[in-house]
Predict the 3D structure of the following.
Amino acid sequence: MPQFCEVALPVPLDQTFTYMVNGTVPLVGARVLVPFSGQKLMGVVIRVHTETPAEDIEIKPIQQVLDDAALLPDELMELARWISQYYLAPLGEVLRGMLPLGAEVRRHFIYSITEIGRKVLYDGAERGASRRSRLSPEEQNREYSVLNYLDNGEAAKMSALRSATGANKALLDGMVRKKWLLRQAIAEERDARRLVKVAVLVEDARLPKLNANQTAILAELAAIGGRIQVRDLKESLGRKGVPESTLGTLVKRGLVCIEDAAEEFHFGGVAAHGKKHAHEHTLNEVQTEALSSVAIAMTQEGFKPHLLYGVTGSGKTAVYFAAMRRALDAGKSALLMVPEIGLTPAMTGQLVAAFGDEVALLHSQLTPDERAEQWHRIRRGEARVVVGTRSAVFAPVRDLGLIIVDEEHDGSYKQEETPRYHGRDVAVMRAKLNGAVVVLGSATPSLESWANAENGRYTRIEMRKRVADRPLPAVELVDMRNEFRETGQEQLFSRRLIEETEATIARGEQVIILLNRRGYSFVVMCRGCGEKIECENCAISMTYHKPVGGDDAIAQPGQRLECHYCGFRRGVPRECPKCQSEHLYFLGAGSQQGEERLQGIFPHARIGRMDRDTVRGRSDMERLLARLHAGEINLLVGTQMIAKGHDIHGVTLVGVVGADFALGLPDFRAAERVFQLLTQVSGRSGRGELPGKVLVQTYHPDHYAVKFAAEHDYPGFVAKEMQYRRWMHYPPFGVLANVVIQSERFEEATGWSAELGRWFRGATLGKVRVLGPAAAPISRIKRIYRFHFVVKGETRSALSEALRGMLRFAGTREIPRRSLVVDVDALHLM
């Protein structure tokens, strides 16, 4: 009989913890509640055994076994171990990301009296001394009431203490600091289902004499199948003038009963307004060939990775849906990953139309209860089609036969918090562990995926033409250097873009303008001393957000400066904080300013804006896209959110403003990102019956990324970019990690960086090169100072060995693990 188990806990430590089995033996993959560092944490069992630990280690018992079965199947446990090894992430933090079930555990604090507190309660001298404290007499009396309430020795929750004594959290915190009270964190199970009241018609009930209102309710219940949510029934009664009390009368008479039932999940979705759903299209010859390649691989029942390279508008989504149908027909399940939550409404609407109630949705904007509900539906096998963002790769799908990663190049698939996994690469590994087919789709594949197809690791499928042989949009470059020379002014929108926009709107067509910056102005500078107003928490300029309808930046209420890294906000000062000059200068234009200027240029246009300020939740995106599909908006301005995956057939003109700014960033992927953005946003134009046009405003018309994007020449761009990557040994011709050392104290951050730098210089690292330490490009975020190393290796094993050696050395120097961020395959070196 196993006596011990190893538990992975969600803490920044590269180890598991041993606990004693107390009664029920948990299964590997089940959740348990265990005591850890004065609190109760939920962990996942990874091993049970009979090996007695060392005598000098105190082994605590498991507090509670939460699951009578393994929540995570063997393949997901194996995937978690791989992620932990590959990305050098604590296993407990990986498993926490795999189980979005926080809603099922309620956490709260309990308080108990200490011996010091009991002495204060009974010792009048001590209590008299407490009255000389800063607390008011009323608060001191509350302290005495709390101690008196807890004198029986039983612990109590904060809610009970608040109700009995009037104590608030601040008062209890003070008593804990004085060691009068002991506070413990407690976690316990809760039912995460969203329950609603349902009125149910009692069958075979003997009907007494009824009045007209009662008859109306029974007739309505019978007409809809005998069940309806009480709130919906009450709304219906109100419209008909039937009093709500009538329902209560029917319940008393035994003709209707009220039950608790799980609330149905609302998927949302965007109406297509006359367009066919993806599954309704008849595939053309190229699409059929693409489907055939994937379908044959599924029949062979083995791991088969595919790269589906298809130009924008080539009909990749129709191929996805047909492949998913083949998987379901073969008794398998399918997982579709999308890079942005904003893409889920349209995709989910099409999936529900195609596959009905077999669809489940997973992403971070669901409530905790909703995520738990969807997760359990998937685990029970009720949903065989799953759609979601990067975390959906961990969905407990049964009999997984197909994984599709749409827009596989997108940087949103990279997790920016521990564990820093890449959803695309994890999807490939999960497919390998499941013996499934994985399809990576994109019009602009990442260079890493393209290289894997070139060397034979992936099967490449190409779709080089749009559906119905529609032409790719004509791209025209507008040289903003000439615009300045000819007008003598720095223009946000060129004369050519204004002219084409006006003509397009006049024809009754729609326009999209990409302006890839949030806010109104992204720099506020003093003309007197040149000082920029930076965030007090981060070493970054604050962005000015103008109040809606405001004219004067300083005088209008509601204006603010905001940091887009930590969220800190402040008002706009009337004078420079450094030199007190009144001459503040607002530089740069964001999407908010773009919208305002377009309203002035085109007063009769129906203008909308899509950015993080206007789209804060999934319902916001649904409403905006519905208005766009319906033609209520004919001019849309926004950030890169507008460039991803949207299929609006009325858009015939796309304008691109300031996208080449990124070419000046210190990032070896800058050219790739600009090419991808220009290509993706260009693809929003001309997807319907009318041909499209794209105007790209640029200060770098001769840059190869801009020129190849204008020519829709992805292979040409890849050939050029691969030359630079090969010369510099950057991915895909090498492997890379970004190591960040961080601390709230500048001296600690610099000291630890210096120690690690000395270790790197003295260690035998083989085919590994280390750059640094240096201040990170953003040297302070959220009051935390940051230094970094860029570690480049010729092989994966050499890089991993060097990073593990660094972590071991850091442990000997007592550098906290949470102060070391290891980002393997980093997409950003910030």
About this structure: Residues 104 and 192 are 5 Å apart (CA to CA). Residues 746-762 form the longest helix (17 residues).
